[in-house]
Write a structure and sequence with these properties.
The protein is built from 15 helices and 18 strands. By secondary structure, the chain is α/β, with parallel strands linked by helices. It folds into 2 domains: 146 residues, 3-Layer(aba) Sandwich (Leucine Aminopeptidase, subunit E, domain 1), CATH 3.40.220.10; 316 residues, Zn peptidases (Aminopeptidase). Strands 7, 8, 9, 10, 11, 14, 15, 16 and 18 form a 9-stranded mixed sheet that branches. Strands 1-6-5-2-4-3 form a 6-stranded mixed sheet, sandwiched between helices. The structure holds ligand BES, manganese (II) ion and zinc ion. The site of ligand BES has 16 residues, from helix 11.
């Protein structure tokens, strides 16, 4: 676990702290934050000079190191004052941890930049997220250095600790994603769920191949035929909300996607270890729930398997029967995510009376073509729930864009010989066709939104919060905001 896990608050002044790095801020209009003003005065205007010389512009992402009173002071650019928000605070906090790690400074303190601690959750999140590194397989590189402590000064908000807990949960999800397919197996996902269940007083149920096949999950069972690695159907139930309807989260736990008999090209196939990032999002959310213990009922469902080409593997042309009884003509074994989700969504619809269902999946390469690594594609059946998704997307800084789930697209997945087929018209609206397929497995009256995170789960721009070449843990902050956890 290479990240800081605990962030504290303190009302101490900058002079009283003995942190190895103290971070304060400057806006684009060149105005200094209160603590920056105090340090500027104590240093005979060191910041003012740098501003006058034009070196400090106050732009987002900028940072400058000063030495004042034998202390290291990092002056952070905070961007435009009228645009300053929780996202800016999160990025700035990430920068503080990043800078400390790159300079091997083991303790940091940063000023609380809020007026009424309204951005403090983001501050806690940013300090933890910026400290994340995935070094588990770098042997001999461990020099014992560790960022040990992070403190937010001029602050006593409980939202700092809440943000840190959420940051931890995101790092937990990143680890699941970053470990390779031979480590993050379906069995490992079930173990991770067990850890969360123990921590959060949740009920864990895991069905193995024999059990879920017997139960009628023919779609998951079909995909799992090609692998000897034991598949799992994982259910976590957090019931702390009396008789309220549960909110159900479903995540694609495809721990390695070779494409099956419709095999993928070799280039970048290694990246298909990330094909379980949907499950990392929902398990990460449950990890945060375990720490925050909100009063609500939440269920998390993870169908999990590899998609390989063993001698028993399912084939194009095969017909599978999902848990809800619908038959599926297989046209491409590489469209397997929607198959395992079909059973996850059917199970959610049948076993619970959900207030709503959200599913997360690295489902289509097409969403990457549409939205790049910038936003997740979202589609669903309920306008007011979609509105909530969009609000939480703004609050969390995790961008989504709605694609239309129109009847024209829903017709494209009807099969001539079975109820549905597992792909739409080749080369057309692939992400929507996948969502149209999923819709067939959600009971009609249940509000449902699908998140296609194939572009956002890994591979985006390196920022102070997202390290290069790492899973992002995308979506956890958005869902927690939506749940009001
Ligand atoms: N896991 C992939 C989607 C994917 C591809 C995510 C590339 C990230 C990068 C999914 O299982 C898949 O293979 N989808 C196919 C569907 C097609 C065969 C209809 C795709 O997108 O090519
Ligand atoms: Mn696939
Ligand atoms: Zn896949």
């Amino acid at each position: 676990m290479a990240h800081i896990s605990n962030v504290t608050c303190s009302m101490a002044s900058w002079k009283e702290t003995n942190a190895g790095l103290i971070a304060v801020g400057v806006f684009e209009d060149k105005s200094l934050t209160p603590m920056a003003t105090a340090i500027n005065e104590a240093s005979n205007g060191a910041f003012s000079e740098a501003i006058d010389l034009g070196d400090v512009k106050g732009k987002t992402g900028e940072s400058h190191l000063f030495y004042v009173d034998r202390k290291r002071v990092l002056l952070l650019g905070l961007g435009k004052k009228d645009k300053f928000n929780s996202n800016a605070v999160r990025l700035a906090a990430g920068k503080v941890s990043r800078t400390a790690i790159s300079k091997k400074i083991d303790s940091v303190a940063m000023e609380c930049f809020c007026e009424k601690c309204e951005y403090c959750q983001s501050c806690g999140e940013g300090l933890v997220l910026g400290s994340y590194q995935f070094l588990d397989y770098k042997t001999g590189k461990d020099d014992g250095f560790e960022l040990k402590s992070a403190t937010v000064l001029s602050c006593d908000s409980p939202n700092i600790a809440k943000g840190a807990a959420i940051g931890n949960a995101v790092c937990f999800a990143r680890d699941l994603g970053n470990h390779p397919g031979n480590i993050t197996t379906p069995t490992r996902l079930a173990e991770a769920a067990k850890e969360i269940a123990d921590e959060g007083d949740m009920k864990l149920t895991v069905f193995d191949r024999e059990e879920f096949t017997e139960m009628g999950m023919g779609a998951l069972a079909g995909v799992a035929l090609g692998t000897d690695e034991p598949p799992k159907f994982i259910i976590l139930e957090y019931m702390n909300g009396g008789d309220a309807k549960p909110k159900v989260l479903v995540g694609k736990g495809l721990t390695f996607d070779a494409g099956g008999i419709s095999i993928k090209p070799a280039g970048k196939m290694d990246e298909m270890k990330y094909d379980m990032c949907g499950s990392a999002t929902v398990l990460g959310t449950m990890k945060a729930i375990a720490a925050l213990k909100p009063k609500m009922n939440i269920v998390c469902i993870v169908p999990s398997t590899e998609n390989l080409l063993g001698g028993k593997a399912f084939k194009p042309g095969d017909i599978l029967t999902a848990l809800n009884g619908k038959t599926i003509e297989i046209l491409n074994t590489d469209a397997e995510g929607r198959l395992i989700l079909a059973d996850g969504l059917s199970y959610a619809s049948e076993q619970y009376d959900p207030e709503f269902i959200l599913d997360f999946a690295t489902l289509t390469g097409a969403v990457l073509v549409t939205l790049g690594h910038v936003a997740a594609g979202v589609m669903g059946t309920d306008e007011s729930l979609m509105e909530k998704v969009k609000v939480s997307s703004k609050n969390s800084g995790e961008k989504v864009w709605e694609l239309p789930l129109w009847p024209e697209f829903c017709k494209q997945i009807k099969s001539d010989i079975a109820d549905v087929k597992n792909m739409g018209t080749p080369g057309q609206a692939g992400s929507i066709a996948a969502a149209a397929f999923l819709k067939e497995f959600v009971k009609k009256d249940i509000p449902w939104i699908h998140f296609d995170i194939a572009g956002t789960a890994w591979g985006g721009k390196t920022t102070s919060l997202d390290p290069k070449g790492s899973a992002t843990g995308w979506g956890i902050r958005l869902v927690l905001d939506m749940l009001n956890a």
